[in-house]
Each structure stands twice: as C-alpha cells, then as structure tokens.
Amino acid sequence: MNSLAETAVALGYGLASALVPVVNAEAYAVVAGHRGGHALLAVLALALGQTAGKLLLFESARRGSGRLARTLAQRGESGRAAARTARWTAPVRRWLSRRRTALPTVLVSATVGVPPLAVVSLAAGTAGLRRWEFAVVCLSGRMVRFAVLVLPVALA
C-alpha cells in the first residue's frame, strides 16, 4: 500500500475509533510504528481523525444540550431525577466553562486519557468551550499520545 492510502486508512481508523469505543487507535498506532515507513504521517492522520470524531461529539452535545433541557421540561421530569442529574453535571460544566481549567483538562484528557476524552468532549460542548480551542488542544494532545506510542516502536 502506498503512503497516501495508508494515510487515508489511518485517518478513517482515527475517526472510527473516536466514535466507536471498541476500535482502538492506540493499537493501530503501535502497528503502524512497527511497520515502519511513514510512522509520523500515521500519527498525524490518526490524530486528525480522532479530533474530527471528538468534534462531532462536541458539536452534538453543544446543539443537543438545549434540546435536552427543553424536552425534560416539557415532559415534566421528576424533581429527583433533575436534581440527581444536576448534581454531577453542574460541577463538570463549571469546570469546563472556565478557560483556565477547561483547556488543561482537555489537554490532559487527550494526552493521557483520564478523564476519558469522549466524556470531556461531550461536557466541553455543553459548557460552551470555543470549538477552535477545543480542536487545537485536542489535536495537540492526540498527536503527543500517538507519537509516544509510535516513536519507540518505529525506532527499535
């Protein structure tokens, strides 16, 4: 397979792994590093695919948060259910609504994986984090994560 096809596969794999939890981009990164060739291109493609997928989650949460609130209000959800939901969502939204705490949280999540990036992506979307800031920080963290996995294998 030529480098353009490998890059396209890595991009698609990154996108799929961002949306489907059982598709593991880290395993793909290690295999790409082991195969040699254009390992850094695979890192970039995986990171771009992952970021695109996480942006889909981010935007879905951003657009859906208002609809969800309206739907719950229309259905007259019980006070207990609303209080229970607010108890764990309010602190997360406050944390991610401040730039000084939101961006480092996204960066750590994208690099280390704790807290899970899928959860952070959804929470950041509802908290009103700027799309471009989320994308840049997420892409940076993903590139570091995949480079740390690929480079030792590629250089061995």
Descriptive overview:
With 156 residues, this protein is mainly α. The chain has helices at 3-19, 25-35, 39-75, 79-97, 99-112, 117-127, 131-155. Helices cover 86% and strands 0% of the residues. The protein is elongated and about 55 Å long. It contains 7 helices and no strands.
Features:
156 residues
Radius of gyration computed on alpha carbons: 18 Å
How does the overall form come out from the CA principal axes?
Answer: elongated
What percentage of amino acids are in beta strands?
A: under 5%
Low-confidence stretches: none
Gap between N and C termini: 22 Å
* β-strand number: 0
What level of helicity do the residues show?
A: over 70%
Structural class: mainly alpha
- Please write the string of helix (H) and strand (E) elements: HHHHHHH
Helical region count? 7
Secondary structure elements and pairings:
Blueprint: H1 3-19, H2 25-35, H3 39-75, H4 79-97, H5 99-112, H6 117-127, H7 131-155
Helix pairs in contact: 1-3, 2-3, 2-7, 3-6, 3-7, 4-6, 5-6, 5-7
Brief account:
By secondary structure, this protein is mostly helical. The protein contains seven helices and no strands.
